[in-house]
Amino acid sequence: MKVKYAILEKQDLYRWVEYLKIKARLYAPKKKENLFVFGPVKNADEICLDYIPTILPPKKYYFPQKEKLLEFSIKPFKSEKAIKEFEEYILFGVHTCDIAGIQCLDVVFREYPEDPNYLNRKEKMTIIGIECFKYCDKYANCTSMGNNVPRGGYDLMMVDLGQNFIIHINSEKGERLVVELDYIKEAKPQDLAKLENFRNEKKKMFREELNAPLPEVYKAFSEYESFHSEVWNDVGRRCVACGNCTAVCPTCYCFDIVDELELTLNDGLRYRIWNYCQMDDFAKVATGEDFRKGRNSRQRHRYYRKFKYPVDKYNRYFCIGCGRCSRTCMADIILIETVDSIVDPANAQNYKGLIKNMPEVCQITQDTGACDDR
Amino acid sequence: MKKRSKPKVAFFDFTDCEGCQLQITNMGDTLLELTELFDIVNFREIMSEKSDDYDIAVVEGSISTDNDIKRIKGIRERAKILVAFGSCATIAGVNGIKNRAPLELARQRVYGDKADTVNTIKAMPLDEVVKVDYYILNCPPYVPEIIAVFKSILIGKPYPLPNYAVCVECKMNENVCRYEKDEECMGPVTRAGCNSWCINNGNRCYACRGLVENPAADGAKDIFLKYGFKAEDILKHFTLYNDPQGEKKYDREFK
Amino acid sequence: MIDKAILLEKMKTSPYKPMKARIIEAKMVTENEKFFKIELEGKINLSHEPGQFVMVSIFGFGEAPISVCSSPTDKGFFDLTVRNVGMLTNALHKLNEGDIVGIRGPFGRGFPVDNMFGYDIVIVAGGLGIVPLRSLIRYIMHNRNDFGDVQILLGCRTPREFLFKEETKEWMRRTEIKFKCTVDRADPDWKGNVGLVTSLIPGVDINPVKTYAVVVGPPVMYKFVILKLLEKAIPDHQIIVSLERRMRCGLGKCGHCQIEGIYVCQSGPVFNYAQLKDFRGECHEGECYEKKI
Ligand SMILES: Cc1cc2nc3c(=O)[nH]c(=O)nc-3n(C[C@H](O)[C@H](O)[C@H](O)COP(=O)(O)OP(=O)(O)OC[C@H]3O[C@@H](n4cnc5c(N)ncnc54)[C@H](O)[C@@H]3O)c2cc1C
Ligand code: SF4
Ligand code: SF4
Ligand code: FES
C-alpha cells in the first residue's frame, strides 16, 4: 500500500457513493422516522453520515436476524449448507464503536469450532467507517470503552475535516476502492496536520462516561459481593424482559435453531434466529429446571457477559459503548448507571433515571452534508 | 411418493365475528395449496354442504351460553384434533369484556327487556371447557402462523407458542419503537408470534395474542405511568383482549 | 491466527450439518424411555469418549442433545436412551428400526477416564443419570483390569423407572462390580431398599484418596450426593459431575448452555467439583449453589 491517507472533496462524495454502488451492494445509515437504520442505498442522498447509532447495529448483515443454515429433505435424507455463494457488500459510514462490535464477533466466531456462515459473510464485507466528532447523546459510553477513536478493524476510515473528508486506507481491499479514482487524491502534510488538530479538539470534548476506569470496573465485577448486589434486584424489578437491550447490542450473538418445512412436508430449511438471554425460557430445560429464573439474574448475566466473562476469555470487553441498550430500554435501565452502581454502591442512590433528566451533552456543530436536521 | 389419505377439516364458530374464517378465505393461492393436503368438509363462509365426519375441528369464537358448552363437547368427541382459532377461542378475546360486569347487568345492557329470555354465561376460551390441541392466536389470525400450525398438525408435531414479547419481533423488524415516539404499546407484555404485524403497519400492539406466561406487570406499569397513561387506561389496555387471564396474570397488580 | 487456507476449507462445510445415521435397533425399555442402537452411514465409528453427547436431528422437528450410552469400545454402532419429554424426544420415540436420523458430534468433554486408571470408582446415578454413566460402566467393563473396585449406586423414583435391569445383573455377575439400588417409592413387588440415593452413601466402604466418585442426576440429587461424598473426604477434584443445560448448537456459540463464562457444551458437560463449586451461575430456583453447600 503506497497511499495511507487520501482526500475526498465533499462535492465528490455522491460520485464516490455511486462508484461504490457499482462495486458491491452498499449499505449505509439512513433516516427512519426520528431514528436511523442501516439499509441498502438507492440514492446517494439517502445516506446520513451525521447520525446517532442505528436501531439495529450493522450486525444484521453479518449475523442476520434469521439466517438459513441448512437445506434438508427428509426422504431421501439430505442436508446441505443452505447458502453457498455470498455476495460482496460494503458497509458505509460505520461508527468506530460498531466496528469494535464487528471485531468482538470476529473473535467469537473464529474461535474453534469456527462458524462458517459468519466467516463467509465476513469474508465478503468491506467496512468504510466514519469517525465521530460529537457525542451521539447521553447514553453513549464509547470513550470509557476506548472506542470513540478508530482502533483498526476497517478497510477505510473517513474523517470529516469540514470542506473535505480525509480517508485512512487500512487494507488492500479498501485501497482498491480509492486508487483508481482521479478525484480521490493523496493527502498532503497540511491535511494530516488538520486531522491531528481535530483529534486534539476531540480529546477535550469526549470524557470518560463511567465514573471509574475499566480495570476498576472489571475488578468490581469480579468481586463476590457484586454478584449478589442489590443493584440486580432493582434492575430486575424494573425490567420487563422485552429483550430489546440484547436485540440491539452489537456484541450479543445468542441464537436458537428452528426447522421450517415447505408445504411438501418433505423439504425444508433449518434456520438460526436471534435469541436473547433476557427471554423467560432461555435457560430452561425439559425437566422444568430454569437456571436463570428471575429477571434479575438474567440482567446480571447480560452485564457479566459484557464486563467480565469475555474479558476472562478473550481479554476484550464486549460492551463497545454505543449506548443502544440504554437508549432502547423503555424501563430506563441505563448501562452507565448500572455499571457505576456496581463499582460503587453509593451511586445507586443518586441514580434512578438521573441520566434521563440530564441535559443533552454539548455538541460541536459541524456541517456533515445530508441529513443534518436531526 | 405414497399418496396419503387427506385428513378432513371442519370449521365451526361460536360467539365471534367470523373474521377469523374470513382470514382463511383471504389466503388465496396458499389456501388452494393447503386444500391439496386437507379436505374441507364444513366451512360456512365458502360452502354449503355440511358433514359430521371430520378429523380436525377448527373452532373460532368463545363459549358464552350453556348450549355452546354442549355443542363444543360434541365437536370435541367427534374430532381427533381440536384447534382453537383466533383470540375469542384462545383467550376469550373481546368477548371477555363482558366478564368485567356482573352477568345480570351485562344481560340487561345488551338485551334490555328481553333479557330474561336469553341464556348467557361468562365468556370463556375453549380450553376452559374442553381440551385444545393447537392454538392459533391473534385477532384476526396471522396467515403465516395459520400455515405453520397446519403443517405441524400434518406431521404430528406440537406447535409451541412463543413465550417472549412482541418487542422481540418488533426489534428484528427494526421498527421505531412506539415509546420512542411517546405512544403506547402492549408489545412488552404480549406473546409474540405475529411478527409484530400491527406495529409494522403503523399501529400499536393491542395484546390480542394474550400475555406472555410471566408478564412483568410491575415493570410494565412503571413504563405506562412514566409515559403518562392513567391507571384506568392501563387496566383497559390489559383487559381489552385478556380478561380471563386477569386473575392469573395482572389483576393483583392493577386492581 | 489460523491459516487462511485452512479457514477457507472449513468455510465450505458446516458444523451444523448432521451426518446420516440409521437406527438398527429400537425398543422401549421403560414406560417413558426408549433405547436406540444407531449406525452412522458407512459404519464409521463415532469415536466418542464416555460421557460425551451428540445432537440428534429429525428434520422438521429440530435437534436435542442426547448422551451416548455405549462405550467407544463398542465398535461400529452407538447407543442412545431417550426419555419422552417434548417435541423432539416425542418424535424420536415414534421411530423404529430402519429409520433415519441426523447426528452431529460427539460434543463436549467426557469423563476423565485417563486420570481414573488405577483408582476405585464409585458411580452414583439418579434416574436418567444412569444413561451417560452406562458409557463409562461399559468402558470400565471392557478394560476391567485398569480400574480398582467398582461400585454402582442407583436411585430411581419407582421400580418401574429402573433402566438397564438385565444388563446390571450381567455386570454384577461377570465383572465383579458391586451394585446397590434404591427407590423413592416402592411398589408391592419391590424387595430392595427404599429411600433417596444419598442414604446408600454412608454404607459404602471407600479409601477416599484412592477413589473417583462420578455423579449424574438432576440438580437436587447431585447437590446432596456431593455433600455426602465430601463427608467421606473424597478430594474435590475426584468428584466428577455431569450437568444438564439447555443446548442448541453444541459449538459454544448459541449461549443457552452457559454457566458464568463457561459453555457447558464445550467445556462440559462433565466437570469436577473443584470447578463446579466456583460456578455462581449454577443457580437453581433462584438460590445459588454455593449457598446450599
Ligand atoms: C449433555 C446432555 C445430555 C443429555 N442426555 C440425554 C439422554 O441421554 N437421554 C435423554 O432422554 N435426555 C437427555 N438429555 C435431555 C434432553 O436433551 C432433553 O430432554 C431434550 O432436549 C428435550 O427436547 P425436546 O425437543 O424433546 O423438548 P422440547 O419440548 O422441544 O423442549 C425443548 C426445550 O424447550 C423447553 N420448553 C419448551 N416448551 C416448554 C414449556 N412449555 N415449558 C417448559 N419448557 C419448555 C424445555 O425446557 C426444553 O429445554 C440430555 C441433555 C443434555 C444437555
Ligand atoms: S430493554 Fe430494558 S426492559 Fe427490555 S429486556 Fe432489556 S433491560 Fe429489560
Ligand atoms: S413498538 Fe411496541 S412491540 Fe415494538 S419495541 Fe416498542 S413496545 Fe415493543
Ligand atoms: S449449546 Fe450452544 S453454546 Fe452450548
Commentary on this structure:
The complex is a heterotrimer of chains A (374), B (255) and C (293). Chain A has 374 residues and is of the alpha+beta class. Chain A contains 17 helices and twelve strands. In chain A, the strands form two sheets. In chain A, strands 3-2-6-7-8-9-1-10 form an eight-stranded mixed beta sheet, with helices on both faces. Chain A has a four-stranded antiparallel beta sheet with strand order 5-4-12-11, with no helix packed on it. In chain A, strand 2 and strand 3 (35-40) form a beta hairpin. In chain A, helix 8 (214-222) crosses helix 15 (335-343). The longest helix of chain A has 17 residues, at 189-205. Chain A is globular and about 65 Å long. The model of chain A is unreliable at 353-374 (pLDDT under 50). Chain B is an alpha/beta fold and 255 residues long. Chain B folds into two domains: 8-155, Rossmann fold (3-Layer(aba) Sandwich), CATH 3.40.50; 166-254, no CATH class. Helix content of chain B is 38%, strand content 9%. Chain B has helices spanning 19-25, 29-37, 66-78, 87-91, 103-111, 143-155, 166-172, 197-200, 217-226, 231-242, 246-249, 251-254, and strands at 8-13, 39-42, 56-60, 81-85, 134-136. In chain B, strands 2-1-3-4-5 form a five-stranded parallel beta sheet. The termini of chain B are far apart. Chain C folds into two domains: 4-107, Beta Barrel (Elongation Factor Tu (Ef-tu), domain 3), CATH 2.40.30; 113-289, Nucleotide-binding domain of ferredoxin-NADP reductase (FNR) module (Rossmann fold, 3-Layer(aba) Sandwich). Helices cover 24% and strands 30% of the residues of chain C. Chain C contains nine helices and 17 strands. Chain C has helices at residues 4-12, 87-93, 113-116, 130-142, 165-175, 219-231, 264-267, 273-276, 289-292, and strands at residues 19-28, 33-40, 53-58, 62-67, 78-83, 100-107, 120-126, 150-156, 177-183, 193-194, 211-216, 239-242, 258-259, 262-263, 270-272, 283-284, 287-288. In chain C, the strands form four sheets. A seven-stranded mixed beta sheet of chain C has the order 10-9-8-7-11-12-15, sandwiched between helices. A six-stranded antiparallel beta sheet of chain C has the order 4-3-6-1-2-5. In chain C, strand 16 and strand 17 form a beta hairpin. The longest helix of chain C has 13 residues, at 130-142. The N and C termini of chain C lie far apart (42 Å). The model of chain C is unreliable at 282-293 (pLDDT under 50). Chains in contact: A-B, A-C, B-C. At the A-C interface, strand 4, strand 5, helix 3, helix 4 and strand 11 of A face helix 1, strand 13 and strand 16 of C.
